[in-house]
Amino acid sequence: MVSNEQRRRQLAREKFERQQERRDAERRKARRRNAVIAAGLAVVLAGGATAYATGALSGDGKKDSAADAADTPTPTKGPDPCKKPLPGSASTKQWKSEPSMSIDKSASYTMSLQTTCGAVGIKLDADKAPHTVNSFNFLAAQGFLDHSKCHRLTTQGIYVLQCGDPTASGQGGPGYSIPDENLKDARLKPDKSPDAQPGSVVYPAGTVAMANAGPNTGGSQFFLVYKDSPLAPSYTPFGTMDAEGLKTVQKIAGAGAQPGAQGNPGDGAPNATAVIDKATVTKS
């Protein structure tokens, strides 16, 4: 007999796999739409094809079955712990290809996210994930992340805050994709819980990793792990939050998440006004 907690974690993983399959299908459709545009046909796209990525991270908040809600408590809404965003609009810039490599892989880089809820400092792994760090170095210099909302918070089974989409729809990105990197990072330990899925690993609290819609489809969306989270080892870990940053994300999580698209609790937009006012990458 499995416990309620084990059942919740199992359901979270099953949902993760179903949502990943849906996102892969959506990306294939988006590619077909883009091909039509390239052929000169008058087709209007509603949004980008970059990932609303990562299982509990990639989903659209839809309830996949009645079982997804089994043994799941109704979330409560806490007070908003954050300030109003600074004046400004989210970026609409797009690029056709990944930026050329401009970072020094042997140097140290940090990314600072000045958010409405507090500062999040991130030590970047330029040596292990150079394409990813180079991309964020470029995007930060372009102001691409400034004034963007962190659009998704998961509070059950997997514990992450997802950011990096200026559209706040979960489907936005910079227009280009970057390759997966560092998927065998030593921080990702095998999940040894009683209900662990084959191959599952634990992304430890403090990890910063890329969202995606399948292999080598990373764009600008990333997630901040505020509590150890079991996932497939499919999401590039490219940095680690500092202590203050982890507390900031935990504060956002403490205010809870709004229900998803069909009322699914524990996986939706954060109740907190979580906005990146300014993102900068610094070489040290």
TrEMBL record:
Region named Disordered: 1-33, 56-102, 256-284
Principal EC category: isomerase
Swiss-Prot/TrEMBL keywords: Isomerase, Rotamase
Coiled-coil intervals: none
Biased composition (Low complexity): 67-79, 256-272
Catalytic activity reported: [protein]-peptidylproline (omega=180) = [protein]-peptidylproline (omega=0)
UniProt biased composition (Polar residues): 89-102
GO MF term (any one): peptidyl-prolyl cis-trans isomerase activity
Biased composition annotated in UniProt, kind: Basic and acidic residues: 1-27
Sequence ranges assigned to domain PPIase cyclophilin-type in this UniProt record: 118-281
EC number: 5.2.1.8
PANTHER family, alphabetized: PEPTIDYL-PROLYL CIS-TRANS ISOMERASE B-RELATED, PEPTIDYL-PROLYL CIS-TRANS ISOMERASE-RELATED
UniProt similarity note: Belongs to the cyclophilin-type PPIase family.
Protein role: PPIases accelerate the folding of proteins. It catalyzes the cis-trans isomerization of proline imidic peptide bonds in oligopeptides.
Protein name as annotated: Peptidyl-prolyl cis-trans isomerase
Originating organism: Streptomyces orinoci (Streptoverticillium orinoci)
